[in-house]
Every structure is written in structure tokens, then in C-alpha cells.
């Protein structure tokens, strides 16, 4: 799919949103493997761009290096042997600028240069992707695919990542294209989505619909979980798709996106009109409408009432599956205990990953019959 050069002018608000999410997730992801003293850690940016926009604002490749710089002391202390950076930019002029930007950064930050080994290619995505897959499969890897269009988005490419065991990925997709061209043969070659489903949902939810369609085409027994983040730019809806198998990775991503948008954690705009719903509560004649967080609280409560007794691990996974940070569940569980609807015999419900998976014994969260 053709597209304009994103680096001919300053990054717009939508571009900055996806760059900030990627950067902040990298900040959460990298220390995990540094603290494990992983000898080799890999990061892939296969639609890398020039390194900076026209105003010198860093793009994804430079942001990766800046994150490595931030943790450089711990990286050396933990005896990480190498952080391998794989960059790809197909367009000649962009490739030249990218190469110069990386070389300049490493020349000015020699401590980063000591730990980073890098490879910059100028290849079509369909060539470079299969070449790098063996490396992605072998080492802890973070893959960022900031495509301009939908080139990566076919089920064959995703299934190759699904087979890896230590890979987290973020890819950008122009979801609004599916609304406009989804029934054409060109688009059906990328991803098959029921046109009726697209048309039956409001346009603002197009990215969520696309991500659900992708998830439905994964193996039924997969541990891979996909999470959308919609990005609105003028009248178009684009978005990021995050994928990971490890629940701790999902937890980190949800923290990042809910920090980006504390209203809904799923878009760079008020996609569910939660602000308007909050305002309606002061209108005695308006039907109360629940915000996303309020709906989650109600679902959490009804789930506890249905199951009667669950463990902290169950509640940990339930919260992630619903796309919420653990602090939402923690806060509501503490409230429910305070008002006497539930009981657990610990000070907190212990919803952290280590407590849920590696604690001495599970915490039982019990529904109390309320008359």
C-alpha cells in the first residue's frame, strides 16, 4: 500500500502518541531481561524511518537507544553481553538519514555503543522479515512494526510470531482502510474480515473490530494475547496492536496505555464518551450511563458473586483479560471488603504477578452472602 512520507514534516499528535507508547513499553520491557542477566537481548524496528522528524524530535530508533542509555549502568552490572538492534528502512533517502542518525548517536554516547550491536538494512519487509525470524525466535525480542498501511497484517506473518516464546510486539495498522477497502481482493489477501461485522459497529470502534478479527484467526490453544489501542487522526482511525504471551508483559502494556489515557486505556480519544457519561450523573432526568471503569467494577463484582470463591491468580488473569490495570481491581476489591461483600484474610488481595504465581500459597477471595 502506498503512503506519504511521515518524516517530511513534524510528527503530528497521532504519531507522537504511538511513539510514546512504544518508548514507554520499551522502558518497562528492557529491565525485565536485564535483571535476568540475559546475555543477548534483541529489538527490531522494521519500518524505522529517518531517526528524527524535521524538528529533531526522535523517532522510534533513537528512542530505543535513549532507553538503553537510561538503563546502561544496570545493563553493565548485570553482565548483559549484547543488546542487538535490527533496523530496516526501505526508502533510499530515509535509509541514509537513519544510518547517519544512529552512527552520530553512538559516537556521542560511547557507553551505549559498547553494549549495542546494530544492523541497518534497506530491504522490502517481505524479504527482511523471514530473514530475521530465526533471530526473533532464538532470543528475548521486542518487535516494532510502524508500517504505513497494512502490509504486515496478514495471518501468516502473525502466526510466525505466535510460534515464538519470548517475543513481545507492537505493530501499527491503518484500520480505517478496512472500512473503505475491506471487501476488495487486495485487502482480503491481507486479512479476511466479515464486511457485515465492520458495518454493524460504529466507525470509531473499527480498530477494535479489526484486532478481534485477527485474534479469532489465531490457534484456539494459543497463549498469545492481543490488545488494541485506537488512534484518531482527523476523521481516520488507526491503531496499535500489542501482542505477548506472558501475563507480566500484558500487565506492563496495560499500565502504559492507561497512563496514556486514564479514561479508557484503549484510545487517544474519549472513544466510549466516558467524560460525557460522568457529566450526566448530575442530571436527575438522564438515564445513568456507566464509564468503562464502572462497567469493569460491576463485572468484577458479578463474577465474584457467581463463582463465590476465587484465588488471587484467577483475579489477576481476569483483570488482564478485561484490559484493565491491576490497580483498578485492587481498589474495587478493597472497597468490596470494606463494605462486607467479600472477604480475604490478607491485608491486600495480592494481585501482583509474583504473588499470584510464585507466592507461598494462594489468597482466597470469598463472596459473602449479603442480605
Keywords:
371 residues, alpha/beta, Rossmann fold, 2 domains, three-stranded antiparallel beta sheet, globular
CATH structural fold name of the largest domain: Rossmann fold
**C-alpha geometry:** globular
Work out the number of β strands: 10
What is the strand content?
15-25%
How does the helix and strand content classify structurally? alpha/beta
Helix proportion range: 40-55%
Summarize the structure in words.
The protein contains 17 helices and 10 strands. By secondary structure, the protein is an alpha/beta fold. The protein folds into 2 domains: 13-260, Rossmann fold; 276-367. It has a 7-stranded mixed sheet with strand order 3-2-1-4-5-7-6, sandwiched between helices. It starts with 12 loop residues before the first helix and ends with a strand.
Question: Quick summary of this structure?
Answer:
The chain is an alpha/beta fold.
Q: What is the strand and helix layout of this fold?
A:
Layout: H1 13-35, E1 40-45, H2 60-70, H3 72-77, E2 82-88, H4 92-108, H5 110-115, E3 116-121, H6 125-138, E4 141-145, H7 155-162, E5 167-173, H8 176-181, H9 185-188, H10 195-200, H11 206-216, E6 225-233, E7 236-244, H12 247-260, H13 274-280, H14 292-307, E8 309-311, H15 312-321, H16 326-338, E9 342-343, H17 353-358, E10 364-367
Parallel strand pairs: 1-2, 1-4, 2-3, 4-5
Antiparallel strand pairs: 5-7, 6-7, 8-10, 9-10
Helix pairs in contact: 1-2, 1-12, 14-16
